[in-house]
């Protein structure tokens, strides 16, 4: 896959599966809060994708871990749930090799055979639509939540930080 065809690959997948979605062109936002304001969506509707490397206990797995943008990932919990002993964020080089995207532009779909897709269940509990950058920092897709779950088929793993 070439660097700039993630958006086309994504929209073809969504169209083929009769997904309910809309595309939004916008200025580049920095943090998730800024992007939500630009999109006109709630922060929690954002589907934040983190490319992680889980290791230990005989486990070596790259993971695209998706959670609501208003939550923080607990990488230790993610590692344990995946059967590893530790997890770290992948390097920018690894992220690009696995997703063909830069940090912040990663859609919540894996198109690479070595990148396992997992999602925190909270992603499906609060909003009818999810919003995410679609391979570009200037282009978002707002997708029906159940269509995302049906098409992406992520493994559900609770890995968000829970307040004490």
From TrEMBL:
Record CDD domains: YeaK
Listed Pfam families: tRNA_edit (PF04073)
Q: Which InterPro entries does the entry link to?
A: PROXY (IPR044786), YbaK/aa-tRNA-synt-asso_dom_sf (IPR036754), YbaK/aa-tRNA-synth-assoc-dom (IPR007214)
Superkingdom classification of source: Bacteria
SUPFAM superfamilies xref list = YbaK/ProRS associated domain
The GO terms describing molecular function are: aminoacyl-tRNA deacylase activity
This one is known as: Ala-tRNA(Pro) deacylase
Which organism's genome codes for this protein?
Answer: Xenorhabdus japonica
* Lineage of the species this protein comes from: Bacteria, Pseudomonadati, Pseudomonadota, Gammaproteobacteria, Enterobacterales
